[in-house]
Amino acid sequence: MSGWGRYPRSVARVYRPEKRSHLSELLTRRPEDSYLTRGLGRSYGDAALNRGGGIILSRPFNRFLQFDRESGLLACEGGVSLEEIIEVCLPQGWFLPVTPGTKFATIGGAVACDVHGKNHHRDGTISRHIEWIEVLLADGTAKRCSTAEDSDLFRATVGGMGLTGIILAVGLRMRKVETAYVRVDYRRTRDLEETLLYLEEEDRNYTYSVAWVDCLARGARMGRGVLMGGNPASPQDLTGRQARDPLLVRNSHLFSLPVDLPGFVVGPASIRLFNSLYYRRFRRGKSSTVEHYDPFFYPLDKLGSWNRAYGKSGFLQYQFVLPPESARRGLRKVMEVLSDSGKGSFLAVLKRFGPDDGLICFPQAGYTLALDFAMRGASTLELLASLDGLVMDHGGRVYLAKDARLSGDHFRQMYPGFDEWLRLKEAFDPEGVFASDLSRRLGWEVRRS
User: Which residue ranges of the chain lie beneath pLDDT 50?
Assistant: First the structure.
């Protein structure tokens, strides 16, 4: 098995229980030393791998339990995908309060990673919109927790990477919308300073805000990009076919890559060409349009198996966040290293975060940059290790849901809330039944009783 980045890979025994009683029985018998729940496998690195242990597939648990059309409170099992939630709720005027960059993830996985989206500066991570979670603990008992009830289990489970128990069901407060569309403003920027300036000044005007950055541009053009600011569209914003079906659910999936592409496809020359063409696609100044939610939130979902573009060796996604006081210096240092290395990224997404949300939650106030790197062996790992040093020197941290190689020592420096999280993990899973390749790599083992 592998994550979405197809690196690393490991072997585990896979279980597909069909009933809750089967889950409890599995945890009671324990034919494996450790277990981990896996949804749709969209975490990038080793977060959903459990070498030599058991992998429990959550997709069979994909029932909708209840939906209140008046309040927008949805109750569903942990194996329900975000795509399925949209298909059921959007025609009734409700959308996800927070969504990552793919709809092909389960709600259980979204909670375990405490995902963020383009609206973190306003709405935080998904945990702020969760009414309750039902968790199956290692002893086979199920507990419902929230910020008011069994709050320690709630705090440890959101962002806990699936290591406190199996997320059986979630109560999620959906966002009321009038249409399936977004009013989007595009603005091309000249350099990093202008990109950050507009993010700071205009974030207050947009519910959703993100920037694409040319990470290989040098000199005066370093950090140039395209800002995208969006607000939910009203019926008055729509014309033509949009107005005839304002709550249209549309799947933009076009086709899948049938084979792994050769390495030169994502080489430095093609990345430079792509960056130049994409930048010039937008004119100087501001332009506006009305877009359907699908291409706005999920542009990469158009191409199934897009991870095959990086070849058989796979790729690593590297996402980090830096606090406001050091973000400018840190981002410039990172871009200098990238341009000097020539190892650019087709994906270079910059966003502004609001305040921190949890014990080992990734977002903190500041700026986050997400990058993709084709796996080229030791040279790629050395580059990312050097970026780790820059991130730590500037008070930042790396996103665990996309990580595949961070060291345990560096992790502990980046996440000061980890000791409190581990104390709670040991209270709810004293024998360390739930584990992963990520937890072992980072040294998260509990002291087994």
Answer: none
Q: Please provide the DSSP assignment of 188-241 as one string.
A: EESSHHHHHHHHHHHGGG-SEEEEEE-TT--GGGTT-EEEEEEEEPPGGG--HH
What are 213's two structure tokens? 């950055």
Neighbours of 254 (CB within 10 A): 9
Cα torsion 253, 256, 262, 265 to 10°: value is -10
Contact 371, 216 (CB under 8 A): no
Q: What is the DSSP string of 348-407?
A: EEEEEE-S--SSS-S--SEEEEEEEEE--THHHHHHHHHHHHHHHHTT-EE-GGG-SS--
Quick one: the chain helix, strand, coil %, rounded to 5?
A: 35, 25, 40
Residue written as token pair 């959101």: 158
Q: How many residues does the chain have?
A: 449
Interatomic CA distance for residues 319 and 210, integer angstroms: 14
Question: Which residues 6+ apart lie within 8 Å of 241 measured at CB?
Answer: none
List Cβ neighbours of 149 (8 Å cut-off, separation of 6 or more): 132
For residues 169-206, one letter each, b for 16 or more C-beta atoms within 10 angstroms of the residue's C-beta and e for the rest, the string is: bbbbebbebebbbbbbbbbbbebbebbbebbeebbeeb
Decide if 395 contacts 323 (C-beta within 8 A).
Answer: yes
Q: Residue 75: what are its φ and ψ, rounded to 5°?
A: -120, 125
Structure tokens at 140: 């086979």
Rounded Cα–Cα distance for residues 80 and 104 (Å): 10
CB atoms inside a 10 Å sphere around CB 392: 16
Q: What is the C-alpha to C-alpha distance for residues 390 and 399, in angstroms, rounded to an integer?
A: 15
Question: What spatial distance separates the first Cα and last Cα of the chain, rounded to whole Å?
Answer: 30
Q: What is the pTM of this model?
A: 0.95
Concatenated DSSP letters for 113-170? TT---TTHHHH--GGGGEEEEEEE-TTS-EEEE-SSSSHHHHHHHTTSTT-S-EEEEE
Q: How far apart are CA 94 and CA 91, in angstroms?
A: 7
Q: Which helix (H) or strand (E) holds 110?
A: helix 107-112
- As a whole number of angstroms, the distance between CA 2 and CA 8 comes to 6
Residues 384-404 pLDDT 10s:
999 999 999 999 999 999 999
pLDDT in tens, 84-114: 999 999 999 999 999 999 999 999 999 999 9
CA distances from 399 to 215, 267, 368, 440 (A): 19, 25, 10, 17
Give 82: exposed, middle or buried? Use CB within 10 Å, 0-12, 13-18, 19+: buried
Using CB atoms within 10 A of its CB, is residue 28 exposed (0-12), middle (13-18) or buried (19+)? Answer: exposed
